[in-house]
Amino acid sequence: MTTKFEPVIGLEIHVQLASKTKLFCSCPNGVGEDTKPNTAVCPRCTGQPGVLPVLTEGAVKLAVKAGLALGCKINEYSTFSRKHYFYPDLPKGYQITQFDKPINGAGSIEITFGPKENLQKKKIGIHHAHLEEDASKSAHFEDYSLIDFNRAGCPLLEIVSMPDMRSPEEAYAYLTEIKRLMKWVEASNCDMEKGELRVDVNVSLRPVGQEKFGTRCEIKNLNSFKAVKDALYYEINRQTELLNNGGQVVQETRLWDKEQNVTRPMRSKEDALDYRYCPEPDLPPIVLKHEWLEEVKKQMPELPAQKEAKFMAAGLNAYDAGVLTSSLDLATYFEAVTAGEKVPVKTASNWIQTDLLGMLHAEKKEIAQSPISAQTLAELLEMVEGGKITRKQGRDVFDKIWQEGGSPKAIVEKLGMVQVSDEGQLEEWAKAAIEANPKAVADYKKGNKAAIGALVGGVMKASKGKANPRLISQLLAKLLA
Ligand SMILES: [Zn+2]
After folding, report:
1. What percent of the chain has pLDDT over 70?
2. Residue-averaged pLDDT of the chain
3. Ligand 1 centre distance from Cα of residue 387 (Å)
4. Distance, CA 164 to ligand 1 centroid (Å)?
5. Is the pLDDT of residue 366 over 90?
6. How far is ligand 1, taken at its centre, from the CA of residue 28, in Å?
7. 138 C-alpha vs ligand 1 centroid, how far in Å?
8. How far does residue 371's CA lie from ligand 1's centre (Å)?
9. Which domains does the chain show, CATH number per domain?
10. Positive or negative, the Cα torsion across 351, 355, 357, 360?
11. How far is the CA of 13 from the centre of ligand 1 (A)?
């Protein structure tokens, strides 16, 4: 007999904070691959003897903003600790991190997952989120290795979730939400290709109905959302088979091999004891002044959940509201298009999702790089909504502005794109269409109302797309009555 198991998943996410400088020195932060190795360094971040760390304010501020976005309790008093381990990319022989008194205490976020028509929400707890410095980067070659210290000392925020996730889909949704929030408050750029967001997952199984957690495995350094999902699926299957065959899960750290699609043991999991944590003697505690904290709170943008609720109250469904709040830039764009209240929210949502995002995606551009500004799109949609031009003409104008720039009004005038609403002219086209389509007319009269489509099409063709489709339908119905 096989037991039915339930996965218990927790994530530890490292995000690189987007501050100007490193955490404990004034070297530039996050210089990237195109900067020559070992040029963004100083005696502090290379761990030279006799130097002392100096905490930089920028990173602390971003950590607090991130904490506020995660609904964390911000600790006005927090401390640094040393985490000891030996590795060539760690010049001091220890990492400065936060251990028992992190800057961000417990919090929670809400994730959304499931099919488009039936989205589910779930609250996931955040255990805490602490500040720490990054290690440098080693590159291994056949018989030698090189170290680049440009990344050493860059500020990281480690976000530790509660073990609240029960499926790879929930873990994926959690990651998506963390990334959205961190980018939203500009705490991190979260570019996974640049290693600005790195994920470790913890997963264990327990028989359905049992409260006590099983033995967990940690899978380290997953560098894409897909890898997280794939590794979790693999690990859940591996542990299920193991347990059903009478085996036991060993607490260990495993690595994801994305070529073979398997996890492999890396080392037995170390406990906190192995790191010999101790208070960092070279740094005073971080004490946040009350006024400073209030000022940071004031600078926080409205968070995505609040915006989503607003968009839904204005008439969008949960899915559309989710898409339009996937980034602050997109939400702001949507708000600007609908600000004049002349463009219905659903119309704006459709154009942005289908036309604008479609084009941006095809050209691998971000919303901030859109050749069509929110004001321009609003102007264009007002013309379509007001019946000045048809939707199809609107799309042609959209394409023209995308290519060449310009204002919708000028382009509509230049191309002579006016929607024809003149009844005499429409009637002439309608009569011609009826004459040319006897079959459609017969079908329509037999009760097939959809047959009118062929006649509308005929008029549109004759008018070169300029006829007002709503008026044509009315007119045809009248003539055929
Ligand atoms: Zn430095």
Report:
1. 98
2. 93
3. 61
4. 38
5. yes
6. 8
7. 17
8. 39
9. 5-292 (no CATH), 302-414 (no CATH), 423-480 (1.10.10.410)
10. negative
11. 24
Span from the CA of 368 to the centroid of ligand 1 (angstroms): 32
d(CA 27, CA 35): 13
Q: Is the pLDDT of residue 294 over 70?
A: yes
Q: Which two tokens stand for residue 157?
A: 């925020």
Ligand 1 mean position, distance from CA 152 (Å): 8
C-alpha separations of 250 from 128, 200, 204, 215, 257 in Å: 26, 17, 10, 7, 19
Instruction: Quote the ligand 1 centre to 68 CA distance (angstroms).
Output: 28
Measured in Å, residue 399 CA sits from the centre of ligand 1 at 48
Closest CA to 191 of 225, 159, 220: 225
In terms of C-beta density within 10 A (0-12 exposed, 13-18 middle, 19 or more buried), how is residue 237 classed? exposed
- Joined together, the tokens standing for residue 424 give 């005499």
CA of 86 to the centre of ligand 1 (A): 20
Comparing CA positions, the residue from 206, 249, 214 lying closest to residue 4 is 206
What amino acid is encoded at 349 in this protein? S
Question: Which tokens belong to 187?
Answer: 């705490």
> CA-CA distance, 452 to 378, in Å (whole number)?
32
pLDDT digits (tens, 9 = 90+) for 333-346: 999 999 988 899 99
H helix runs in 218-264, sequence order = 225-244
* Residue 243: CB atoms within 10 Å: 19
pLDDT at residue number 468: 77
DSSP 166-212: -SHHHHHHHHHHHHHHHHHTTS----GGGTSEEEEEEEEEEETT--S
